[in-house]
Write a structure and sequence with these properties.
By secondary structure, this protein is α/β, with parallel strands linked by helices. It has three domains: 1-46 and 93-161 and 241-306, FAD/NAD(P)-binding domain (3-Layer(bba) Sandwich), CATH 3.50.50.60; 65-91 and 163-238, D-Amino Acid Oxidase, Chain A, domain 2 (2-Layer Sandwich); 322-382, no CATH class. It has helices at residues 13-24, 50-56, 94-108, 151-156, 213-222, 267-287, 292-321, 325-335, 338-347, 354-360, 364-369, 374-382, and strands at 2-9, 29-32, 47-49, 63-67, 69-73, 79-83, 89-92, 111-113, 116-122, 125-130, 133-144, 163-173, 180-184, 193-199, 202-209, 232-238, 245-246, 249-251. Strands 1, 2, 8, 9, 10, 11, 17 and 18 form an eight-stranded mixed sheet that branches. α1 (13-24) packs parallel to α6 (267-287) and α2 (50-56) runs parallel beside α6 (267-287). It starts with a strand and ends with a helix. The mean pLDDT is 93.
């Protein structure tokens, strides 16, 4: 039977980052990917902050465009422009990004098996099927980077994300200011819609929600003059697992529910969680200790790095569910103030939005427009 120090399941950014880091620590590492081509199917809007892109440690080749801000437009017609004047984020070809990250992992010494899926995990053995037939592979540590519907979490009977949103997006021919991302909070009552300029006259439009997502997307696309487009669908998990380790296994990225509840982005949190997992995997292998109390160091590490931000973000998401279109419009008008916009430009962080959110929610103009939510929803954010 094949045996490795570490088996990683999933070759997205989190999986490849984990595989590269583990191989870099000198661990024999295998990465299993169920699809035949790394990077497909694409289920990501492709907007990364400069910090998130830096975490991926790739070349600039996957970059399609760079943006400096966002234009937020409500259904009632109110809008604000947040313009940092410098390029704050990159729009990337996610398939190309994933392939570069996988190549970096392979260059570090990790092995890959494509068209291979997990059937079961028994003790320290993962049972797989795919182009190599039915194969059992032994491991010391298993890193589950197998996405929002994690097979491994399901096999273990672990509670997964609290909320699942469905997403639809499409790339369309549309002239759009290349400097700004469009944000449309009324496109979905649960989340928001987006328009991301890809360069060369094309724009990626999409939205996420719980219900009636195809119908809402069709209506949203019509505002851009589109009635028939090639659609890409995906699932967005929101809410952390109660525990992200069990039975020699560490859960990273979307498998652990690390998508940011405020934006849906998961590359930054996924890659950082993967590197925390690799540190713990190396420590466990070095000391030949794999009990849950040894794996618990992983949870301590990522919670110290990301925990407060993710928990605060989920409370913001819950608050957003209570807001009516009129309240959202009132909020956007309240934010359309030179001092507040300067604060957003100076203090906002795409990957850690809790800081700017907590600042804004204490502004009198913002509090005044939130109405009945002040006494319940907002109070719950801080206590």
């Amino acid at each position: 039977m094949l045996r490795y120090d570490v088996v990683v399941v999933g070759a997205g950014p989190a999986g490849s980052a984990a595989a590269e880091a583990c191989a870099g620590y000198g661990l024999s590492t295998l990465c299993i990917e169920e699809h035949g081509t790394i990077g497909y199917p694409v289920q990501c809007a492709g907007l990364l902050s400069n910090s998130a892109f830096a975490e991926c440690r790739t070349s600039e080749r996957p970059v399609l465009n760079r943006v400096s801000g966002a234009k937020v437009v409500t259904g009632a017609g109110s809008e604000i422009l947040i313009d940092a004047k410098v390029r704050k984020a990159r729009v990337v070809d996610r398939a190309a990004l994933d392939r570069e990250m996988a190549k970096s992992a392979a260059d570090a010494g990790a092995e890959f098996r494509l068209k291979t899926s997990v059937c079961d995990v028994v003790g320290d053995t993962v049972r797989t099927r795919g182009m190599y037939g039915h194969v059992e592979i032994g491991f010391k540590i298993l890193i589950a980077a197998d996405g929002p519907r994690s097979t491994i979490a399901r096999r273990y009977g672990l509670e997964r994300a609290k909320v699942y949103l469905s997403g639809i997006q499409a790339d369309i021919p549309c002239p759009f200011d290349q400097r700004y991302v469009g944000v449309y909070p009324d496109a979905s009552p649960d989340f928001f819609g987006w328009a991301i300029p890809l360069g060369e006259g094309r724009t990626r439009i999409g939205l996420c929600g719980r219900y009636s997502v195809p119908e809402r997307f069709a209506a949203f696309a019509r505002t851009f003059g589109q009635s028939s487009t090639h659609l890409v669908t995906g699932t967005l998990p929101l809410g952390l697992m109660n525990r992200t380790y069990a039975r020699r296994t560490l859960f990273v990225g979307d498998a652990a529910g690390f998508a940011k509840p405020t934006s849906g982005g998961g590359v930054y949190t996924g890659v950082r969680s993967a590197r925390h997992a690799a540190v713990v995997a190396a420590d466990c292998c070095e000391n030949d200790r794999f009990a849950d109390r040894d794996l618990a160091l992983y949870e301590k590490r990522w919670r110290g790095d990301l925990g407060k931000e993710l928990e605060f973000g989920y409370r913001l998401f819950a608050l957003r569910q209570k807001m009516s279109p009129a309240q959202i419009d009132s909020l956007i008008r309240a934010l359309d103030d030179p001092e507040i916009l300067r604060t957003i430009v100076d203090r906002a962080d795409m990957d850690r939005p809790g800081t700017i959110a907590s600042i804004l929610l204490r502004k009198p103009a913002v509090l005044a427009c939130m109405g009945s939510l002040i006494s319940s929803g907002i109070r719950s954010l801080f206590f």
